[in-house]
């Protein structure tokens, strides 16, 4: 009753919507300026359905005013004609990765991880992916470093939600993210090659945002009011403790793990942390983060609580629980009775975020630091096995191990050593055979279970692959270009797409093929073009990977002025005569084919856009065009002050739906079903179900593929409307159709 009164009178039925601007993005400052000065300014004094729209306010505790909240609900944003322009801006920029719509309290755990670009990070229960996106942004804090030394491995147990996670992560165009599909409570130990030896991978940072009863989301999740019982927490406590335990096992000494839930129930929160601290025997400690995130209103963790059954029975201690109830209630659910132990745990260092303190949802966060190995794993598991040298195509298959983790609990016995030697000999012989077949790593000892989509393999290009030489020559790639990090998803036949991962993720992929079910990794950098071979290179540049590739490209670059950029982004296939004389001169002596179009700001013209732009393009006989997805075009035009908003009309909506259907069919003609296609099928069904952080429609995912292949379609320039004249489609997930 207290919660109902507090939340539905003082605060209103729904918490404010959060908007976050990723700082490492190349145009983050420009997006933030546009958001504050233009779109927020237009909301001043506006009334919708008789209710005054409150001006969005920055979150006082979020660094550099990069996160804001507004009382505008998604329903009002979608349906109100006065807010249509603002809504289109949010949808379009979100799809580009320049804005993330995320509830305010959900932004807290990644901030408390204190991520640096060199950190190896595990996100144990990552879907739908807003927190994962924050972690990726932190890795790329320095935009001048295309390949940070750190990486994010984002895991989720639900195969379908993994594709939603892929969709979120791909907006950020990072070569340092891998999405895997495992049960977090038994996620396997991974191995990496360190100077020719295999060693177990320990993570510097782990985000453990576990499944919970969700009672902290009752302001926006109506189902909580209907379905919540005390039984929910009792059933989840064991799983939460197992996941957290597995997390700290894989945490490096000195590393930091953040445990979080969107629940306020101590059985899911302090009880889990207290149990973890107790059995760690001093290996873990709660970090004091009271000085971090100044401005965030928080309550300390609690030290006393009772346990209640569904029928209303309360229990203060484990000894009071009758034997017939001891399967429902476990000893770890109760507070610690020993006062000295309790004081040493410092449970008050946990954070409780209450809804009425700053108009948010309810949330719990605890930050754990690992001081030494866990007592049941005092000898850190390391496999000192000399790695064989690999030649030829190296394939990493997507698979899932039956036995999950392989934590070393004690020193092996003599019998175990003998058995280990025999197994090693068998694996070595299998490895030699695998080398000949181009398969990475020894095959699994048991038949693996695959569920969900069967993933295509990840095949790294061999050093002597003839495919790469024309690419290297055509684009004059720098000798430092890490060609060994290129991979495809095709083991046989023509390679249609080339992807790139960081050196560190390549290491993980090559050494764990028998353990991991990898859903997606890498950023697309080149796509095969059917007409390209006659111009000297069969592969054209892909826009999503251009900022990663650009530092290594020394040819096929055309510097353009801002007026040229506007022409490229507003016209589908403009003739060369429309461009500036300088651009025409540069193009004149250049062979046809894929090109890089670079805009550098002029400090002497402060009214022009003051951040660089890099676009993928195509030079034809008489024309020059940019291969840029629609929402990215709109983004650049907004940053240059070009008005791109156009109110919807029924005729335009009908045309847009028809064009989407055509583009989707064209995308499906790709040889092999790429992950974007699987993602498109699944994300549309799931985003409405998840609700909390998933606000992005996959409509443009197939559109992006088609626009990037547009040189293969002779009639495209006749049939396609201008990217600016197209209305920005409302990507409300309830209306998305294939």
UniProtKB/TrEMBL annotation:
This is tRNA (cytosine(34)-C(5))-methyltransferase. It catalyses: a cytidine in mRNA + S-adenosyl-L-methionine = a 5-methylcytidine in mRNA + S-adenosyl-L-homocysteine + H(+); cytidine(48) in tRNA + S-adenosyl-L-methionine = 5-methylcytidine(48) in tRNA + S-adenosyl-L-homocysteine + H(+); cytidine(50) in tRNA + S-adenosyl-L-methionine = 5-methylcytidine(50) in tRNA + S-adenosyl-L-homocysteine + H(+); cytidine(34) in tRNA precursor + S-adenosyl-L-methionine = 5-methylcytidine(34) in tRNA precursor + S-adenosyl-L-homocysteine + H(+). The active site is at 262 (nucleophile). GO terms for cellular component: cytoplasm; extracellular region; nucleus. Its main location: nucleus. It is an enzyme of class 2 (transferase). Its EC number is 2.1.1.203. Residues 7-371 form the SAM-dependent MTase RsmB/NOP-type domain. Keywords: Methyltransferase, Nucleus, RNA-binding, S-adenosyl-L-methionine, Transferase, tRNA processing, tRNA-binding. Belongs to the class I-like SAM-binding methyltransferase superfamily. RsmB/NOP family. InterPro entries: MeTrfase_RsmB-F_NOP2_cat (IPR049560), MeTrfase_RsmB-F_NOP2_dom (IPR001678), Pre-PUA_NSUN2 (IPR057285), PUA_NSUN2 (IPR057286), RCMT (IPR023267), RCMT_NCL1 (IPR023270), SAM-dependent_MTases_sf (IPR029063). Residues 397-406, 696-705 have a biased composition (Polar residues). The keyword Metal-binding does not apply. PANTHER family: NCL1 YEAST -RELATED NOL1/NOP2/FMU SUN DOMAIN-CONTAINING, RNA CYTOSINE-C(5)-METHYLTRANSFERASE NSUN2-RELATED. It is found in: Nucleus; Secreted, Extracellular exosome. Residues 650-668, 675-688, 724-738 have a biased composition (Basic and acidic residues). Pfam families: Methyltr_RsmB-F, Pre-PUA_NSUN2, PUA_NSUN2. SUPFAM superfamilies: S-adenosyl-L-methionine-dependent methyltransferases. S-adenosyl-L-methionine binds at residues 125-131, 156, 183, 209. One of its GO terms (biological process) is tRNA methylation. GO terms for molecular function: tRNA (cytidine-5-)-methyltransferase activity; tRNA binding. Signal peptide: none annotated. The keyword Methyltransferase applies. It comes from Buteo japonicus. It comes from the Eukaryota. Residues 376-443, 650-738 are annotated as: Disordered.
